[in-house]
Write a structure and sequence with these properties.
This protein has 63 residues and is an all-alpha fold. Helices cover 83% and strands 0% of the residues. The protein is built from three helices and no strands. It has helices spanning 2-15, 19-48, 53-60. The chain is elongated, with a radius of gyration of 22 Å. The chain crosses the membrane at residues 24-45. Keywords: Membrane, Transmembrane, Transmembrane helix.
């Protein structure tokens, strides 16, 4: 645990001094995760919308 505390004291506290900056970083990371999740959901829905996808999925299920 001391490694993380030392890293935080050396780099994070020295480089990020304002709470507004950490809020901006948090907002950007949250938006980025939303974009990635929406892209994955879109790819999944596109793969389900292909013709013949229900036969592929039903072949994976046990009889």
């Amino acid at each position: 645990m001391n490694v993380f505390v030392d890293f935080e004291n050396k780099y994070v506290v020295l480089n990020v001094k304002t709470p507004e900056f950490t809020k901006i970083i948090g907002i950007v990371m949250q938006l980025w995760s939303y974009i990635i999740n929406m892209m994955l959901l879109l790819f999944f829905l596109m793969s389900l919308a292909r013709p013949g996808s229900h036969e592929q999925i039903s072949s994976l299920l046990p009889d």
